[in-house]
């Protein structure tokens, strides 16, 4: 073959080159491009077939054919890659400007259940007390008359000892009327000095209405140490109640009679609604009655095996049910133990 | 009870004190004031008028015109009072004055005649309920035109005291006791009213005091020449302002002295009592009497009565009898001033349902010395109300308090102790202030040395009030003002505190069930109603099963609360029923077709009679000796003793009250279908699987070993457990005991169809109950850090047709064991993936299992997997109920 005339395969190469570059630029997506690639470079591809023709050529033509067809293969591969990158880029750009994405579609998650608000508040309170070094104790609801009354210096003539206020069991035992029934248990169980709380269910023989329940929840606090004064009680109650109520509270003490403390107090806290200036919630007084407390009576210490010459203490009884009602604005105590799931589900899930 | 500021003012100089401001101080130091009211507000505008002429109203028969002298002027007003007559001195209310009754007098015409103001009755002025006629001011001897209140104290400030805050202070049930507190707070002297009486020489009434337990002191005297009449206006108005209805001078005098001293009195018409013989005794069991309120009372021998020789004439300390009542014609009066036992009064009053001013006071256990004081005061007061009265007899004074007077109580303390318990220094709480305060409260202070004090308690505080030095801390603290005590951070020991295991366990349970499984926690009552048990079909079982004792209440509010729950499930099922019924729009409900509930709480079981008793750790060590225990038992009320005796005399063990956890998941019907007796098998399986999943999650959250579920057999049912193994809701075919190793920790069951029907659970429900105390005893699984496997796993599934008798757990356990033997280098995990149920197929069920293989020393080869696979097939081939000869086909396929 002379060098001045174009070899016969040159036209085929040119044609194929033209076809392929058209096909490549015509491929709109990666799938189409892949098809073009296979059609050209696959085992039975057009370029592959063309390149096989080298075997039919003369020896001197082979070099020229090899370089021409190899050049074509190089160009095709390169433009395939370029095209692939272009298409990918277009895809990225398209995705980044997607207007069909609905960001307001409602979430789907497995439904969370609900923890009862009494237990939520109780757990929160437990955490506060634990953080201040209080033991958390759990005591029986069926109690002996001794622990519920006798040991607490509640004398036999006291009205609380009547059938009137207490559920008595046929066995002569009773349903504890207050968590204070745990005081003597705690004194025997823990080594003084100690501080402890014992929350739980208590029972009163009492007709039920929106603000009275025969079953409710309390949290008893007890601190025993070498020297405990009214000043200490004031400070402890302010600190603890501020943490429990999650606001800075001011407390004040009024005389109150509870046989197991002496002196005994009704503790008032500053009214949250009016911040002490007077409103209907606090009956214009600026104060809201929160809980009974006092310095532990020496007879109770004795019943707990502690010598009042050496040990002193303070105690309080917080109404957990009442705290829950205050926090969530519940005006009917019967909702708490009513067993209606819809009531519990009205609170945030979680613990 | 009310405190009258006017009355207080008679016993202590209150000049310069604003009673409204002072109320706060009083609340902080003495007793809670529930309200401060201004009695007689607006009455200062009311004038005294004298009626000079009465003429007819031109347009009305029942109205007349009253022409009145107002001093400087006259006025003519329309008046409807039938008793209007010339010469009367009455209150005149000028126009535009608003009276305490709320009436505002208008300046206008009445039936066409000008009437600038009005003449007023006591009711118009808000002073009484007496609408009958005009208020008669004649006895005040006042000048027309003057302000009425110049002549009679009708305006007062009243403190309403919360009675609960003075139950322990019998001395505060009279105005004088309250005045003593005010005097101490104001640091001004208390002016005690005079008790000077000249008693007669005649022998007093014959008093036979039989009931020493109920009556500690009884004073009596005979008063003659009494003429019964209304008390003066000022007395009547004072009584009314404190809520006591005036009757006549004698009765008013008893009430006056009761309000003043706190000690109730009674006056008998001597003419009705033979020989002036008074007997204080217990009533005969069949005796009856008619009390002053006209009620017939049946008495018991627990009631103390005052009787004549024949019959009861008063219910002691509560109410007089009609037969000895003061009448208009009474001239001779027998006085009773006594001190009755509070507990006895309270029992009788509450049994008869009658509560009076008198019983309310006696219940507080009054000081017998006050009875003597009150007797003297009565004579002084009656003299003023009825000057012609003569004290003819001596004063009779008898009773255990008189024959053996108690020695005054002395409390020893030290100044430093009193200060330290308050948290005050000597500079803040001086010796002088201490002494002054205690003496103003009538404590006698004797200094034993510079530090130590002997404090004598006044008898009116000695009863059940002040007995130890802590009580003196309170006396000083409250008068000092607790709001002036600086708060002081306690010096406390630092030590770690953590939630106890039981609390942690409950928290984990809540996290697993509420947050993990979407269940809702409820807190239910600890009582169980008979109706619930009946509906649950438990009553019949109860009757048949004597081994199912429950704790029973001696007193209960309603039959619903007669028994304590033995398990959580019964009440939880009822709650589930209720909540399913609320969700009628199930499809729209956010929980779709299901309601899932759980509860954590205590259940209660009596201790078997034959069970060894353990001493209750709550009974203190100080009571360990037999004699001390005996003393303790003797202190129990007799009514309770029989039960206690039965329980055990030596030790009093509490019933077992373990914490349980129960969960219930119910399926709702869509579209409100009722009476669907045949629940869908899929619902059953899915609810069961869901509950099992919840329990498995719960146990994992508690770090406990995996549980196995298998049906209970008759041996299991004899296990000693706090779980109900014989409950009516337990489905004989669809239940399982929940076991961890060899311990039964819980029970899970689909609800028995009969219970489903009687509870109106139309579709299906599952229930499980676990004993948290048993779970607490099981050691948690030890945790160990493990490096992740280096070589990738490979897995294959097998779907096995099988019969309904196949138990997944057995297949899995057998397979796991077999595959562990294939090759010690290959680890195989066997997992249940799903079940298919198809009733048209001859087997009815197909179970898909997944085997995940991993080589410990390198990558798995095809041969490894094949060897596991064929071992699995060989094993399953031999399993009963799994499709026979099925391995060949599989082998051919592979
Ligand atoms: Zn307020």
Tell me what you see in this structure.
The complex is a heterodimer of chains A (351) and B (894). Chain A has eleven helices and nine strands. Chain A has 351 residues and is an alpha+beta fold. Chain A has two domains: 10-97; 118-342, Bira Bifunctional Protein, Domain 2 (BirA Bifunctional Protein, domain 2, 2-Layer Sandwich), CATH 3.30.930.10. In chain A, the strands form two sheets. Chain A has a seven-stranded mixed β-sheet with strand order 1-4-5-9-8-7-6, sandwiched between helices. The termini of chain A are far apart. Chain B has a seven-stranded mixed β-sheet, sandwiched between helices. In chain B, strands 5-4-3-6-9 form a five-stranded antiparallel β-sheet, with no helix packed on it. A five-stranded mixed β-sheet of chain B has the order 11-14-17-18-19. The model of chain B is unreliable at 584-591, 610-651 and 671-679 (pLDDT under 50). Chain B folds into six domains: 2-40 and 157-186, Phenylalanyl-tRNA Synthetase, Chain B, domain 1; 47-154, OB fold (Dihydrolipoamide Acetyltransferase, E2P), CATH 2.40.50.140; 206-403, Phenylalanyl-tRNA Synthetase, Chain B, domain 3, CATH 3.50.40; 410-484, 2-Layer Sandwich (Phenylalanyl-tRNA Synthetase, Chain B, domain 1); 504-607 and 655-777, 2-Layer Sandwich (BirA Bifunctional Protein, domain 2); 794-893, 2-Layer Sandwich (Alpha-Beta Plaits), CATH 3.30.70. Chain B is α+β, with helices and mostly antiparallel strands and 894 residues long. The radius of gyration of chain B is 42 Å and the shape is elongated. Chain B contains 25 helices and 37 strands. The relative contact order of chain B is 0.06. In chain B, helix 10 crosses helix 13 and helix 23 crosses helix 24 (862-877). The chains are: A alpha+beta (351), B alpha+beta (894).
């Amino acid at each position: 073959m002379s060098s001045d005339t174009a070899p016969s395969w040159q036209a085929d190469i040119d044609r194929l080159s033209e076809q392929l570059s058209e096909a490549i630029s015509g491929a709109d997506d990666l799938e189409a491009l892949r098809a073009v690639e296979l059609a050209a470079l696959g085992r039975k591809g057009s370029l592959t077939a063309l390149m096989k023709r080298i075997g039919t050529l003369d020896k001197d033509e082979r070099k020229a054919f090899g370089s021409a067809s190899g050049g074509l293969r190089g160009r095709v591969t390169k433009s395939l890659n370029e095209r692939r990158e272009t298409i990918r880029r277009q895809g990225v750009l398209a995705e980044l400007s997607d207007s069909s994405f609905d960001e307001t579609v409602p979430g789907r998650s497995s439904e969370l259940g609900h923890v009862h608000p009494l237990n939520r508040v109780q757990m929160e309170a437990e955490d506060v007390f634990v953080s201040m070094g209080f033991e958390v104790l759990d005591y029986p609801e069926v109690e002996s008359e001794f622990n519920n009354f006798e040991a607490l210096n509640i004398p036999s003539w006291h009205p609380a000892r009547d059938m009137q206020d207490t559920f008595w069991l046929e066995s002569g035992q009773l349903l504890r009327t207050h968590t204070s029934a745990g005081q003597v248990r705690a004194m025997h169980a823990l080594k003084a000095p100690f501080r402890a709380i014992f929350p739980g269910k208590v029972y009163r023989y009492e007709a039920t209405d929106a603000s009275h329940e025969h079953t409710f929840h309390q949290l008893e606090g007890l601190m025993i140490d070498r020297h405990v004064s009214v000043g200490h009680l004031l400070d402890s109650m302010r600190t603890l109640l501020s943490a429990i109520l999650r606001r800075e509270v001011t407390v004040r003490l009024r005389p109150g009679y509870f046989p197991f403390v002496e002196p005994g107090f009704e503790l008032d806290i500053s009214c949250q609604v009016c911040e002490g200036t007077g409103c209907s919630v606090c009956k214009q007084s600026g104060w809201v009655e929160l809980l009974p407390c006092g310095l532990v009576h020496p007879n109770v210490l004795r019943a707990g095996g502690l010598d009042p010459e050496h040990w002193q203490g303070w105690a309080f009884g917080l109404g957990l049910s009442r705290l829950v009602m205050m926090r969530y604005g519940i005006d009917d105590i019967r909702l708490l133990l009513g067993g209606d799931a819809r009531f519990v589900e009205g609170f945030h899930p979680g613990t | 009870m009310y405190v009258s500021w006017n009355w207080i003012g008679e016993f202590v100089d209150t000049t310069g004190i604003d009673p409204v401001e002072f109320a706060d101080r009083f609340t902080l130091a003495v007793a809670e004031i529930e309200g401060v009211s201004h009695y007689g507000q607006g009455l200062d505008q009311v004038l005294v008028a004298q009626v000079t002429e009465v003429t007819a109203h031109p347009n009305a028969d029942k109205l007349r015109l009253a022409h009145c002298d107002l001093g400087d002027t006259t006025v003519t007003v329309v008046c409807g009072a039938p008793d209007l007559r010339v010469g009367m001195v009455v209150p005149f209310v000028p126009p535009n004055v608003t009276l305490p009754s709320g009436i505002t007098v208008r300046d206008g015409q009445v039936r066409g005649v000008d009437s600038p103001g009005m003449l007023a009755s006591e009711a118009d002025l808000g002073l009484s309920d007496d609408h009958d006629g005009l208020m008669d001011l004649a006895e005040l001897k006042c000048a027309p035109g003057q302000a009425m209140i110049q002549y009679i104290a009708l305006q007062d400030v009243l403190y309403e005291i919360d009675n609960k805050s003075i139950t322990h202070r019998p001395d505060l049930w009279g105005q004088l006791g309250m005045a003593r507190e005010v005097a101490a707070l104001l640091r001004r002297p208390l002016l005690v009213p005079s008790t000077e009486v000249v008693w007669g020489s005649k022998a007093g009434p014959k008093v036979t005091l039989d009931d020493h337990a109920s009556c500690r002191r009884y004073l009596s005297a005979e008063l003659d020449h009494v003429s019964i009449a209304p008390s003066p206006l000022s007395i009547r108005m004072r009584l009314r302002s404190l809520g006591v209805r005036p009757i006549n001078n004698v009765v008013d005098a008893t009430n006056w002295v009761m309000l003043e001293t706190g000690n109730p009195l009674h006056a008998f018409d001597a003419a009705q009592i033979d020989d002036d013989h008074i007997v204080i005794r217990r009533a005969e069991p069949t005796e009856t009497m008619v009390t002053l309120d006209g009620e017939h009372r049946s008495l018991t021998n627990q009631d103390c009565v005052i009787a004549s020789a024949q019959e009861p004439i008063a219910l002691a300390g509560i109410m007089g009898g009609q037969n000895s009542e003061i009448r208009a014609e009474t001239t001779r009066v027998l006085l009773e001033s006594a001190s009755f036992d509070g507990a006895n009064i309270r029992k009788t009053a509450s049994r008869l349902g009658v509560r009076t001013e008198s019983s309310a006071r006696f219940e507080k256990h009054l000081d017998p010395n006050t009875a003597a004081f009150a007797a003297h005061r009565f004579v002084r007061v009656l003299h003023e109300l009825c000057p012609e009265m003569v004290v003819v007899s001596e004063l009779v004074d008898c009773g255990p308090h008189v024959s053996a007077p108690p020695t005054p109580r002395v409390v020893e303390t030290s100044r430093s102790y009193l200060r330290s318990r308050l948290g005050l220094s000597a500079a803040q709480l001086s010796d002088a202030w201490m002494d002054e305060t205690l003496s103003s409260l009538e404590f006698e202070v004797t200094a034993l040395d510079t530090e130590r004090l002997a404090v004598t308690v006044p008898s009116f505080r000695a009863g059940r009030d002040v007995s130890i030095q802590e009580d003196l801390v309170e006396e000083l603290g409250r008068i000092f003002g607790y709001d002036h005590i600086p708060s002081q951070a306690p010096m406390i020991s630092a030590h770690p505190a953590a939630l106890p295991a039981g609390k942690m366990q409950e928290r984990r349970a809540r996290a697993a069930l509420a947050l993990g499984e979407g269940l809702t926690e409820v807190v239910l009552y600890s009582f169980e109603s008979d109706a619930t048990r009946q509906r649950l079909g438990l009553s019949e079982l109860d009757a048949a099963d004597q081994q199912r004792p429950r704790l029973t209440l001696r007193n209960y509010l309603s039959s619903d609360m007669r028994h304590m729950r033995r398990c959580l499930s019964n009440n939880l099922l009822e709650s589930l029923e209720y909540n399913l019924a609320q969700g009628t729009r199930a499809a729209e409900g956010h929980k779709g077709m299901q309601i899932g509930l759980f509860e954590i709480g205590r259940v209660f079981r009596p201790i078997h009679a034959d069970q060894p008793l353990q001493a209750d750790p709550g009974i203190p060590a100080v009571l360990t000796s037999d004699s001390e225990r005996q003393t303790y038992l003797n202190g129990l009320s007799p009514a309770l003793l029989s039960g206690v005796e039965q329980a055990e005399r030596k030790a009093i063990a509490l019933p077992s009250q373990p914490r349980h956890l129960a969960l219930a998941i119910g399926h709702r019907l869509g579209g409100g279908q009722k009476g669907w007796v045949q629940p869908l098998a899929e619902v059953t399986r899915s609810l069961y699987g869901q509950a099992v999943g919840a329990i498995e999650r719960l146990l994992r959250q508690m770090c406990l070993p995996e549980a196995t579920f298998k049906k209970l057999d008759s041996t299991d049912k004899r296990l000693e457990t706090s779980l109900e193994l014989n409950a009516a809701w337990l489905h004989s075919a669809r239940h399982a005991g929940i076991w961890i190793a060899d311990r039964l920790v819980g029970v899970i069951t689909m609800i028995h169809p009969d219970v489903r029907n009687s509870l109106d659970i139309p579709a299906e429900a599952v229930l499980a109950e676990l004993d948290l105390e048993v779970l607490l005893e099981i050691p948690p699984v030890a945790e160990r850090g493990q490096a992740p496997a280096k070589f990738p796993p490979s897995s294959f599934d097998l779907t096995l047709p099988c019969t309904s008798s196949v138990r997944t757990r057995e297949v899995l356990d057998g397979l796991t064991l077999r595959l562990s033997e294939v090759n010690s280098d290959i680890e195989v995990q066997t997992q249940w993936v799903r079940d298919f149920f198809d009733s048209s197929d001859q087997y009815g069920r197909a179970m898909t299992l997944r085997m995940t293989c991993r080589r410990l020393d390198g990558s798995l080869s095809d041969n490894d997997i094949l060897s596991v696979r064929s071992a699995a097939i060989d094993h399953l081939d031999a399993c009963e109920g799994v499709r026979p000869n099925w391995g060949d086909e599989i082998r051919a396929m592979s």
